[in-house]
Amino acid sequence: MRLARPLIIAVLLAGTRVAGAESPGCNIQTLGELSVTMEGMEPVVTASIGTTDLPFIVDSGAFWSMISPAMARDLKLKLTRAPPWLLLRGVGGTTRPSLAQVHDFRFASYSMPDIDFLVGGNKIDNGIAGLIGQNLLRIADVDYDLANGVIRLMRPNSACSNSTLGYWAPRGPLSVVGIESTDLRNPQTIGTAFVNGVKMRVMFDTGAASSMLSRDAAERAGVPVKGPNVVFAGVTTGVGRKPMRTWIAPIEDFKIGDEEVRNTRLRLGDFGGSDVDMLLGADFFLSPHIYVANSQGRLFFTYNARPSLDPNASTSSEPAATPAENPPMEMSR
Hints:
The protein folds into two domains: 10-18 and 26-137, Acid Proteases (Cathepsin D, subunit A, domain 1); 176-332, Beta Barrel (Cathepsin D, subunit A, domain 1). The longest helix is centred in the N-terminal third of the chain and has 6 residues, at 69-74. The radius of gyration is 20 Å and the shape is globular. It has four helices and 26 strands. 44% of the residues are buried. The N and C termini lie far apart (50 Å). The strands form four sheets. Strands 2-3-15-14-24-25-16 form a seven-stranded antiparallel sheet, with no helix packed on it. By secondary structure, it is mainly beta.
């Protein structure tokens, strides 16, 4: 298998044209629409393998899509060894996946023959078939409106190259964040935010239930990582098998785009396998409407409701059976 081969797809639906915000002639075509169900803090959509509809988590932090080992067995997929250079690194350590080829995969409005999936890891359970990663998401711009239960794949025309693509908010206010250029091995959506005025490299990661700041980055920003106001928040797992301990710490100021949250709390952890300082997880995605303009290298967002960075933060010194909700966070411009 050639994991890095170009993705060839067939569009089944022509889509709907949506007027752009400012440039004459700018139109944004809806290529496909996915209904999203939040299973806990996981955005779950339906995709099909052959004639079987299956639940997948949309994981914008995954560089490639995955199928669980159990599902691969159920579907009788033939597994092959991954290339020697391919290791999955993340929360809980590293793991070496296998590869499986799916001959008939359907996702949103696309029919995708002979798609390679990774098989392995310790992240997929609870009846979930797998993860939809960036190799499938970055075929277009991605419009995340999780608060209203939908993800859309969008394609602006050439007249939109300098246009503001927040089509749902033509009169604003709209925040804009520059995102880094991508390639097949580094396709994640990565931008910049500020914690206590210190610049942070952040990944927009729908596969992370809670937003999280690395403890090294927290120390750079003057955030206390020990002390009476820092509480243990339990453990979490990810790709690897080793659980990761997390804490909740007070944050004086968090700023992204034109939006600012003061006097809030944020989860801290020593997440590995990444050179980013912070993950903006599903808790963050549930507050704003976010348009990831891969076509422009920009991200546009507006808030549907008061933003949250970690609604499930524990306030106990031990792992919480029922995590407490964060106090409300005020926004200022």
